[in-house]
Amino acid sequence: MNIGIAGTGRMGSAVAARLAGLGHTLTVWNRTPDKTKAAVAAGATVAATPAELATRVDTIITILTNAAAIDAVYYGDHGLLAGEVKG
Length: 87
Description:
The protein is of the alpha/beta class. About 40% of the residues lie in helices and about 20% in strands. It is globular, with a radius of gyration of 12 Å.
């Protein structure tokens, strides 16, 4: 399965490593790009924006810090819902 993860802090990186270990294709995005390094080391690619992430994957897992982060990542100018979302 082609899975996207928005939010690759401690928990998101652990989820990415586990999913990569199970053979899934991963694309990740994080507000702080350095926090994607562990997921990339596990085999993930990085999307430039949440909108790009949404267009490249079949399903998205979000692991975000708080309500403000959720609003920005989903509804921002380049948020998850700004992309060409299917289904």
